[in-house]
Amino acid sequence: MKLHSETLDLSTRQPFGIARWTHSHYSRTFVSLEHEGLTGHGEAAPNAYYGETSGTVQAVLPELAMAVQDPWDWEGLSARMSSVLPHGHPSVRCALEMASLDWCARRVDLPVWRLLGLSDTCVPESSFTISLAPLDDMRSQTTEALNAGYTILKVKLGTAIIGISSIHLLKTFINADNYTDRVLIAQTVIHITFLMSAMAIAYTDKLMARAPGEH
Hints:
Number of helices: 7
Strand order of the largest sheet: 1-2-3
CATH class of the largest domain: Alpha Beta
Distance between the termini: 66 Å
Number of domains: 2
Order of helices and strands: EEEHHHHEHEHH
């Protein structure tokens, strides 16, 4: 059994942006599992949220690769990877599990979803995320997505951060004696800023929902 990997820097046709960032280049590591004349493929997509980079993927891949002993032993693979590295590196784990599953599916000549006992009669519909960009660009993206057949469109505005900010502010005030007035005021101002931003987003959405003659 042999494992190979290759890291490529991929560029998107246009930048993709959400409330927190905008990117147009992505590093991806592709894993190949060769065994008994067949090759299974997996992909590691490092996520900065989990402290991952292409560098961390390449560093830990050789360690976790040793956990791949039998492509059919999926539970054993997961347990062995956890014993080698108990925390973190989810993209590398995913790549190795994908490669094992793909190899098994090729071995029995079935698609992976059928190998896992799933049905094709109730497939979730894919959505298309509109990148945050100048309004004309967002209109163009929307038209392109609709023409491609997507019926579920979404825009990630980051409003969930308000809930996170509320919890953080509540914890701060519960332990207010441990903080200076300056910290309390700063966190309150930041939270109010998030609230005002959400109200502006809601008002903009209301304006855009009106019929053209009502503007």
